[in-house]
Amino acid sequence: MLNDSQKWLLLAVMLTTGFLVYLLAPVLSPFLMAALLAYLGDPLVDRMEEKGLPRTVAVTVIFVLLLSVLAGLILLLVPALQQQLASLAKALPVYIDWLQTHLAPWLKQTFGLDAAMLDWSMLKSAAQKNWLQVGGAAGGVMSWLSSSGMAMLAILANLVLIPVVTFYLLRDWDHLVTLLRELLPRKWETTVVQLTRDADTVLGAFLRGQLLVMLALGAVYSLGLWWIGLELALIIGVVAGIVSFVPYLGFIIGILLAGIAAIMQFHEVYYLLLVALVFGVGQALEGMLLTPLLVGDKIGLHPVAVIFAVMAGGQLFGFVGIMLALPVAAVIMVLLRYAHQQYQQSNLYADL
User: Fold this and answer.
1) Residue 137 scores a pLDDT above 50
2) Residues 201 and 211: beta-carbon distance below 8 Å
3) Would you call 288 helix, strand, or coil by DSSP?
4) Does residue 260 share a domain with residue 178?
């Protein structure tokens, strides 16, 4: 058990660490991203190392494979996404005309809302003006970056820093873990190591499985929306897949965006049913196949806990907080389990 001075010291260390994370959030982002990538890639490197490959060679092979896959995805997805954005830019005036013709009368009849006060021609002109710049958005961003040398330098530094730090962390991961273990007080070592392994089991299963679920759902939604003929199928499918990291958020955002796009494109309620069918199939696959198979149902991270952790982390520490949310949640959950076990073994519990 900890004495009073040790408890105060532990509390001071935790508060100081949290304060430093808050202050250094902009600097920590690339390092945390690199640590996350190294953590996810370490099991694969370990397997390759067990088959006789030197660890540095194994890390290099994985890097080459990942960069090849990333380059292939960029070459395949970016032109398609650019084409769909350009199509959306051209179709916006038509969508606004449809809103004026159909939605405005419906709102007035159903809710008593008079949309006559809206200047539809000005709205259409503004939409055309802004969305015509969508195709050149990347050029606009690059123009801003080129006029802001420090911003350009910071982004380039982060882009270079993440893979470099990831490489070294992956190569030296086992050594770093051993070093941290040697720093532990001897009487705490067994307990801390066991708790760390439990947290690793929970977090690793969730992160690796959930990333695969995100990819699968993005593919299912994109293919399903493409099958019904939706022009923005790829954009909506990719967005829904990415935000599926937070439970149910991908489904909600995806079906709303797809429903709006379907009404704008087809002007028929029938296609709303097809959109609902696509996302219903996606949810059924996620609930009955993808999540049980890839994530598992015994990791202990409840969907509500995931949502709260991500929102709280983002509110407290921004993007860094979002990246730290799930690791911290996994550690807290493991500590609560440990505290519950200790309580059940205590005299207090036995005397109740």
Assistant:
1) no
2) no
3) helix
4) no
